[in-house]
C-alpha cells in the first residue's frame, strides 16, 4: 500500500498503546509521512486531565525540534514541502474545549463564571465522561471541518490518545453520556461523536506496542475492548522499537573470542572481549524474545503489522523522525491489507 | 475534569510542610510503620519497583505490604492477587526456597470498594449509606472522577498504616505527571465539599444569601441547559444525602494528609533512562520538593550495562571478518548506554540528595518472584 492510500482510509487516526511504547513518536512519524505526501497533517495532543499549563507535553516538540511546549494554539511544526504538505500540532484540554463550546452555543457570558466558580465541577462530577467527551467533540468538529474541505482545515488528524487502558474509557465516554445525560446539547454532541467513532471512513485506531510481553498483552486486550465496547475500526498495529536483526556468530566465551581475534591478527583485551560477548548475548536474547512477541501478536491480533526499528543513535529528534518516517514508508509499501 | 477545576480554587501548598526528609527510602532498619510512595510516568516499571521494594523489606525481616494500582497480569499472578481486590494477601516464597525472614503482603487497589467502605464508615445510618451508594452522581464520582484513584490509594495506605500490621508499606501510584494529584488527594473530596456552589445548594434559605443563591441558580440553569436537568437534580440530591458526613470525611482526609507528610513517609521516583521519562520524573521531583517532600530514592529501570569500547584500530582490523557483527553490535548497544548515562547524570545533578539506583535491563519479563528478587537485589544501597 502506498502512504497516500493509507492516509485516505480515514480523516482522523487515533493512536493508542500502553504508556511509554511510543504513541507520541508514532503520531509524529505518521504526520510527517502524511506531510511528505502533500497532506496537511494535524497532531492533536491531550493536555492530561489535571494538567497544569507548564506541564503540557514537550516530547512532540523535541521530536520536531520545536522550541516550545504545545498549547491550545495551533503551531506549524514543519512547514510545507514541495507538495504543500505540512505538520501542525496543538494540545486540547477539556476546560478550554468547554469554554469554546459554551461560546459557540451562545453562553459566552456565563462560561468564565462557570469555570471560575467551580460550578463546572458539578458537571464533571455528575457526568464523568464529560471532559473526555468535550475533547472528542472538538475532534469531531475538526474532522467535520476537514470533511467539508475548509480552507484552514487539515487533511489528516492524528490524535495522540491516552494510554491503552485509559483509551477505552476515553473513547467510551460518549456512549456513557448517552445513558447519563438526559438531554440538551451534550446529548446531541455525544450522539454525533458516537456516529463519528463508528464510521471507518471518518476515524480509525492505530495501535502501537513494543515487542515485549506486557505491552503486547495489553495491546491485544485493548484491541478487543475497543472493538467490542467502542465499535471503532482498528486499522493497524505498529510494533515500535524492534531491534534490526544482526547475524551474529554463535555464542562463544571471551577466551574463545580472543583466540579467534588473534587468528585474525587482532589482540583484544579481556574487558573488550567480555563486552563484545556480553553485548552479543544481550542482542541475541532481545532479538529472540522480540521475535516471539511479534509472532504472538500476529497470532492473537489479526491486524496488519507495521514495524519501526529501535533507534540506537540518540534521543529522538528531527533526524530520527525522518529515519523513522522512511521506515514507516517502507513498512507500508510491504503491507498488503488483509480483508476483514 | 482538571484538578484545579474540581478544587474550585487554586490548590494550596501543603500546610506546615515538614523539613525535607533524607536518608534511604528503605533501610534495613526497624523503623515502625515506614511508608514509601513510588511515583513516575507510565510504562517505566513503577509497579514492579514497588513490589521489589516491599520484597526487599521482607527479605530484611520486615512485615512489608505493597499496594498496587494496576499490575500487569503476570506480576499480579506472581503476587497471588489476580482478581482479588482490596484485601492484602500474603505472598509465599517460591516453592523450595527458604522462608523469608519477614513477610510480604500484596494488595490490589479497588478504588470503588474503598470508596464504598468509606461511605459505610461515615454514614450516620444504613439508609444514608444506601442512598448515597445508589445515587448516580456518587457512582460516577467514585468510579471515574479524576483523582479518585489517587485519593483511594491514599485512603488504602492510611487504612493499612492504622492497622499496625506492617513495618513497611510501599504504595504504587497511578501514572502521573502531577505529583500534587497524589499529594493533595486526601484534600480532594474535602475541597469538593467546600466548593462554594455546593455549599450554597446545601445552605437553608436565608435572607442574606439571596443574591448569591440566585447566582447559583443561574449557574444551575446553565448546567441544566448544557447537560440536562436530571444531572442537576441528581447532584442536588447527592449533596443533600451527604449531609452530616462531611466532617468525618474531612477529619480522615486531614489525618491521611498528615501521614503523607510524616517524617516516616518517603517518596521514590521511578523512571527509565530515556529523556522523556527522566524529564517527567524530574518534573514530579520538582513538584514534590515544592510541597516539602523531597524524594529520597530514584530508581532508573532497564539500564544497559556500561560496555567497554573496542580500540578503533582493532575494530578496523576486524571489519570484514566473521567477528565484525560483534563489533557493530557492541557499538550500537554502547551508544544506547552512553546516552543513558547522560540521562542518569541529569538525574544525579537535579536530585543530589536522593539515592540513585540503576536497575539493569533484564532479559526476561519481571513476572515471577525470582525475577522480582533480582530487581530487589539491584535496589540495594
Short characterization:
The complex is a heterodimer of chains A (about 350) and B (about 375). Chain A is about 50% helix and about 15% strand.
In words, what does this structure look like?
Chain A is 52% helix and 15% strand. Chain A has 340 residues and is of the alpha/beta class. Chain A has one domain (3-245, 302-333): Rossmann fold (3-Layer(aba) Sandwich), CATH 3.40.50. Chain A has an 8-stranded mixed β-sheet with strand order 3-4-2-5-1-6-7-8, with helices on both faces. In chain A, helix 4 crosses helix 7 (130-147), helix 7 crosses helix 8 and helix 10 packs parallel to helix 12 (270-300). The radius of gyration of chain A is 23 Å and the shape is elongated. With 381 residues, chain B is an alpha/beta fold. Chain B has 17 helices and 8 strands. Chain B has helices at residues 3-7, 46-59, 73-79, 111-122, 126-134, 136-144, 148-163, 179-183, 185-194, 196-202, 210-227, 229-241, 246-260, 275-290, 312-318, 324-350, 369-378, and strands at 34-39, 63-68, 89-91, 103-108, 168-172, 265-271, 297-303, 355-360. Chain B has an 8-stranded mixed β-sheet, sandwiched between helices. In chain B, helix 2 crosses helix 17 (369-378) and helix 11 packs across helix 12. The model of chain B is unreliable at 1-31 and 204-212 (pLDDT under 50). The chains are: A alpha/beta (340), B alpha/beta (381). Chains A and B meet through helix 4, helix 5, helix 6, helix 8 and helix 9 of A and helix 1, helix 6, helix 10, helix 11 and helix 12 of B.
Amino acid at each position: 500500500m502506498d502512504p497516500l492510500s493509507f492516509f485516505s482510509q480515514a480523516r482522523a487516526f487515533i493512536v493508542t498503546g500502553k504508556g511509554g511504547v511510543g504513541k507520541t513518536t508514532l503520531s509524529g512519524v505518521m504526520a510527517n509521512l502524511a506531510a511528505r505526501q502533500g497532506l496537511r497533517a494535524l497532531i492533536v495532543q491531550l493536555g492530561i486531565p489535571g494538567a497544569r499549563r507548564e506541564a503540557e507535553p514537550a516530547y512532540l516538540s523535541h521530536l520536531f525540534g520545536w522550541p516550545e511546549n504545545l498549547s491550545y494554539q495551533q503551531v506549524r511544526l514543519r512547514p510545507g514541502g514541495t507538495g504543500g504538505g505540512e505538520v501542525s500540532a496543538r494540545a486540547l484540554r477539556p476546560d478550554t474545549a468547554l469554554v469554546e463550546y459554551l461560546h459557540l452555543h451562545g453562553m459566552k457570558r456565563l462560561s468564565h463564571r462557570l469555570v471560575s466558580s467551580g460550578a463546572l465541577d458539578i458537571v464533571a462530577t455528575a457526568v464523568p465522561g464529560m471532559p473526555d467527551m468535550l475533547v472528542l467533540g472538538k475532534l469531531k468538529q475538526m474532522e467535520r471541518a476537514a470533511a467539508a474541505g475548509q480552507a484552514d482545515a487539515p487533511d489528516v488528524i492524528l490524535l495522540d490518545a491516552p494510554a491503552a487502558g485509559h483509551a477505552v474509557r476515553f473513547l467510551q465516554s460518549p456512549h456513557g453520556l448517552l445513558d447519563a445525560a438526559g438531554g440538551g446539547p451534550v446529548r446531541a454532541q455525544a450522539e454525533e461523536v458516537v456516529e463519528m467513532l463508528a464510521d471507518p471512513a471518518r476515524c480509525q485506531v492505530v495501535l502501537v506496542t513494543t515487542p515485549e510481553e506486557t505491552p503486547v498483552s495489553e495491546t491485544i486486550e485493548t484491541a478487543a475492548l475497543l472493538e467490542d465496547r467502542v465499535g471503532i475500526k482498528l486499522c493497524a498495529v505498529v510494533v515500535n522499537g524492534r531491534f534490526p536483526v544482526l547475524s551474529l556468530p554463535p555464542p562463544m566465551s571471551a577466551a574463545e573470542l580472543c583466540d579467534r581475534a588473534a587468528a585474525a591478527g587482532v589482540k583484544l583485551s579481556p574487558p573488550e572481549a567480555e563486552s563484545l560477548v556480553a553485548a552479543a548475548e544481550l542482542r541475541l536474547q532481545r532479538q529472540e524474545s522480540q521475535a516471539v512477541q511479534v509472532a504472538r501478536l500476529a497470532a492473537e491480533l489479526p491486524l496488519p503489522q507495521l514495524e519501526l526499528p529501535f533507534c540506537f543513535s540518540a534521543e529522538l529528534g528531527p533526524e530520527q523522525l525522518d529515519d523513522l518516517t522512511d521506515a514507516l514508508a517502507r513498512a507500508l509499501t510491504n503491507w498488503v491489507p488483509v480483508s476483514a | 475534569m482538571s484538578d484545579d477545576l474540581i478544587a474550585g480554587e487554586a490548590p494550596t501548598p501543603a500546610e506546615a510542610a515538614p523539613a525535607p526528609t533524607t536518608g534511604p527510602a528503605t533501610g534495613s532498619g526497624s523503623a515502625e510503620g515506614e511508608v514509601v510512595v513510588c511515583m513516575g510516568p507510565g510504562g517505566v516499571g513503577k509497579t514492579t519497583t514497588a513490589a521489589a521494594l516491599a520484597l526487599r523489606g521482607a527479605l530484611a525481616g520486615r512485615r512489608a505490604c505493597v499496594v498496587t494500582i494496576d499490575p500487569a497480569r503476570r506480576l499480579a499472578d506472581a503476587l497471588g492477587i489476580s482478581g482479588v481486590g482490596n484485601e492484602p494477601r500474603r505472598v509465599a516464597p517460591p516453592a523450595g526456597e527458604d522462608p523469608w525472614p519477614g513477610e510480604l503482603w500484596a494488595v490490589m487497589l479497588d478504588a470503588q470498594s474503598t470508596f464504598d467502605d468509606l461511605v459505610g464508615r461515615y454514614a450516620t445510618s444504613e439508609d444514608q449509606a444506601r442512598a448515597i451508594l445508589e445515587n448516580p452522581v456518587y457512582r460516577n464520582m467514585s468510579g471515574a472522577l479524576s483523582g479518585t484513584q489517587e485519593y483511594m490509594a491514599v485512603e488504602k495506605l492510611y487504612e493499612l498504616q492504622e492497622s499496625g500490621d506492617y513495618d513497611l508499606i510501599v504504595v504504587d501510584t497511578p501514572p502521573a505527571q502531577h505529583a500534587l494529584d497524589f499529594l493533595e488527594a486526601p484534600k480532594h473530596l474535602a475541597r469538593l465539599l467546600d466548593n462554594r456552589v455546593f455549599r450554597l445548594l446545601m445552605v437553608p434559605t436565608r435572607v442574606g444569601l439571596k443574591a448569591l443563591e440566585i447566582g447559583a441558580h443561574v449557574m444551575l440553569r446553565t448546567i441544566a441547559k448544557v447537560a440536562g436537568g436530571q444531572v442537576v437534580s441528581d447532584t442536588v440530591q447527592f449533596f443533600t444525602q451527604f449531609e452530616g458526613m462531611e466532617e468525618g470525611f474531612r477529619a480522615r482526609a486531614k489525618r491521611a494528609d498528615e501521614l503523607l507528610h510524616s517524617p516516616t513517609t518517603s517518596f521514590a521516583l521511578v523512571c527509565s533512562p530515556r529523556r522523556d521519562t527522566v524529564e517527567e520524573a524530574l518534573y514530579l521531583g520538582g513538584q514534590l520538593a515544592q510541597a516539602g517532600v523531597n524524594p529520597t530514592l530514584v530508581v532508573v529501570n532497564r539500564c544497559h550495562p556500561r560496555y567497554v569500547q573496542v580500540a578503533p584500530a582493532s575494530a578496523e582490523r576486524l571489519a570484514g571478518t566473521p567477528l565484525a557483527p560483534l563489533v557493530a553490535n557492541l557499538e550500537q548497544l554502547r551508544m544506547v548506554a552512553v546516552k543513558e548515562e547522560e540521562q542518569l547524570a541529569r538525574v544525579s545533578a537535579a536530585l543530589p540528595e536522593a539515592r540513585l539506583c540503576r536497575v539493569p535491563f533484564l532479559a526476561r519479563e519481571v513476572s515471577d518472584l525470582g525475577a522480582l528478587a533480582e530487581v530487589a537485589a539491584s535496589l540495594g544501597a
